[in-house]
Amino acid sequence: IFDKQHFKYIILGGGVAAGYAAKEFTRQRLLPGELAIISKEAVAPYERPVLTKSYLFPNEPARLPSFHVCVGSGEEILLPEWYKEKGIELIIGTEIVKADLASKMLISASGKIYTYQTLIIATGSKAVKLTDSGVQGADAKNIFYLREISDADMLVEAIRTKNKGKVVVIGGGNIGLEVAAAMRINKFDVSMVYREQWCMAGLFSPTIASFYEGYYANKGVKLIKDTVAVEFEADLNGQVKKVKLKNGKVLQADIVVVGIGARPLTELFEGQVEEEKGGIKIDGLFRTSVQDVYAVGDVATFPMKLYNDMRRVQHVDHARQSAEHAVKAIKAREDGKSIEEYQYFPFLYSSYFDLSWIFCGDNVGEPVVFVDAQYNTTRPSPTKPKFGTYWINNGKVVGAFLEGGTAEEIEGIAKIVSLQLEAQRDRLEIYGMLVAGLYG
Ligand code: FDA
Prior knowledge:
This protein is α/β, with parallel strands linked by helices.
């Protein structure tokens, strides 16, 4: 006997994109029973970025239901009851282990079959693990990764039991920086280890990075650059105790948190759908190479019209926007209407300690640093964290970064970059902040 269920629409994955897509379905037109969200996670869609930030804080940590989607875009929080009211089936705690796109069928780990008319793939990414590359001892206890709320819960438990011990954070990207800050706020002794010469090397210029590294050092975080972890040693209970680095150093550790990147979850569809740049290839209306199958969020490689390029973006702003646009495209197609193709303008943000930055556009060309006009220096000062960087390419501003900006300045900077204003380096160096304010 087959346990089988059919839906007009299935969203596979119950993360950020799924939640924003569900909301958009209800804004468009949705009948009870038409839509199901199938998710491995045990909870309704939530704003994932919280997991490395306030979820880990010692005082008044963020907990569900306060950060279910769509709180991140300032809209109503979609509680589990909301899905029920709208007749959306929230099939949580359910992993899909096989997808057969030709026969429009998904099969769960417990053998249940789900069929659909239209599928939206929103499986997101998974953390790259040290065990993937065979690092010795990397399967010891208390080595954590952060992707899902269940991962964060295990780290929260370790924070409680290892109370103010030693933490080694591996990876100098955003996850590493955010977790290192959170662990320091929890009064742990924190070291960060990363392969690159400076933190957030994919985005930050050396000048931007040196500001944050100075700030972290002032907060007591030890930064160990230009090396990697090659071995972990555990005690008799299998709990991690030591981290050996390639440079010969050995660090004591009660907790290790690893943030060395994320890979899109495309395995289920391998050989069934066209892929590009590690993700599922879609067109400007989120259509994959398979009829009635769409992809959104982290997993999709889409035409980035602004840069005439195919890209994959692993940021929450894209997850939200792509999901909404895909649902609009699906609905328009059903109605025989046409809508504009997706025009994504990259916008990312993060916060550590009492700092917070935004970045928009593309970080190509020459970076030009500017600081708050009150401070007559071209180097950001660790005591007054307000500065930025414009990237100039072929005489035009193509990207911008801003730490500590006001809402108006952030808006101004985004405008300057989206318009690709022509600019001169020396002017921007002096008037960069002023210009941001003027455009805001
Ligand atoms: P997302 O990962 O949100 O959801 C995918 C869902 O699919 C998960 O629920 C997963 O369990 C489920 N799934 C996968 N395979 C499945 C299967 N076979 N069966 C059933 N379910 C399956 N971005 C940013 O701009 N600023 C920031 O500060 C941060 N901070 C941040 C912190 C942390 C800890 C993470 C992990 C990520 C961020 N991000 C971020 C990135 C951002 O959260 C990310 O881009 C979005 O969550 C992507 O949304 P998706 O819906 O595509 O995937």
